Amino acid sequence: WNEDMDQIYARDMMENEEAKKNGIVLYGYSDDETKYAERVGTDPLYIRAYKVYGRNRTDPVIHTDDSLRILSVPQNVALLQKGKVVILLDKDELVREVAVPQKDEAYYVAYATVKQYFYENKVPGITVTDSIAGIQFSVDLKFRPDSAQLLSSEQQRIDVIAEKLKELIRDNEFTILVEGYTADVGKPAGQLDLSVERTRTVMNALAAQGIPKELFTYKGYGGANPIGSNETEEGRRLNRRVDITARPKATYIQRDW
Q1: Model pLDDT for residues 232-252, shown as the tens digit of each residue
Q2: What gap in Å lies between CA 14 and CA 51, rounded to an integer?
Q3: In sequence order, what DSSP letters do the residues of the chain get, joined into one string?
Q4: How far is CA 255 from CA 25, 93, 97, 218, 228, in A?
Q5: What residue ranges do the domains of the chain occupy?
Q6: What is the CATH number of domain 100-255?
Q7: What's residue 99's pLDDT?
Q8: Quick one: which of 5, 7, 119, 188 has the most CB atoms within 10 Å?
Q9: Rounded Cα–Cα distance for residues 8 and 11 (Å)
Q10: pTM value?
Q11: Smallest Cα–Cα separation from 177: which of 144, 203, 146, 147?
């Protein structure tokens, strides 16, 4: 981005073959150029950023004059397309204090207990994983077509998840995040609204089982972040999902990325 927040470089500007070979971005502190010479070559485009934004500090901002100098030279544009770019930024701009989940021994005991329950009882359509944010229940809940109304047959799975969540929050060590996704059928606004409404439905269904509503946060993403191909029915089925995450209470640490 430049100072006017015009986007100068995005991942879709990079040639596909280069992206497949080397990935799109590599982050690091080292001044030893030999560590990334294979990626950027011997004569890359060097750009100095003066600010960086984004949740994970991944959106650098450069001066507008610099962006004009870069984009007005065809050789520089070619380097951008091939990913042969080094963006320089002061380390002080990257270090910040953030809240991260407190994953201690008690957390992993709780995770193992929940994981074992679903393994032993073979509850269909629920996958339990240790995600970055916490203990995640991924569920392919069934709703009426183009509706936020759950099918009545889903009540059993809601009951089971609610039971496990109540066990987790017993000692006031977790909050709960509900995230909803839809298949991408080319209607982004409608998909986003529907995913939000469906997360609310799930949140309300869990709260009706006795989980305090103030513990919940919900987000809808529409057709973003697919885990399957939207070109096939099976892929669309995978993309219509709800993730319920029991998040351990946060602690603050210094993070440098």
Answers
A1: 888 887 888 889 999 998 654
A2: 23
A3: --TT------GGGS-HHHHHHH-S--------GGGTHHHH-SSPEEEE-SEEETTTT-EEE--HHHHHHHHT-HHHHHHHHTT-EEEE--GGGT-EEEEEE---HHHHHHHHHHHHHHHHHT-TTEEEEE-SSSEEEEE---B-TTSSPBPGGGHHHHHHHHHHHHHHGGGS-EEEEEEEE----S-HHHHHHHHHHHHHHHHHHHHTTT--GGGEEEEE-TT-S-SS-TTSHHHHHHHSEEEEEEEEPEEEEEE--
A4: 19, 11, 6, 25, 32
A5: 11-94, 100-255
A6: 3.30.1330.60
A7: 61
A8: 188
A9: 10
A10: 0.58
A11: 203
Signed CA dihedral, 184, 187, 193, 197: sign only: negative
First to last CA, the chain: 19
Q: Which amino acid is at 179?
A: E
236: phi then psi, degrees, rounded to nearest 5: -65, -35
Facing residues of 220 across strands? Answer: 180
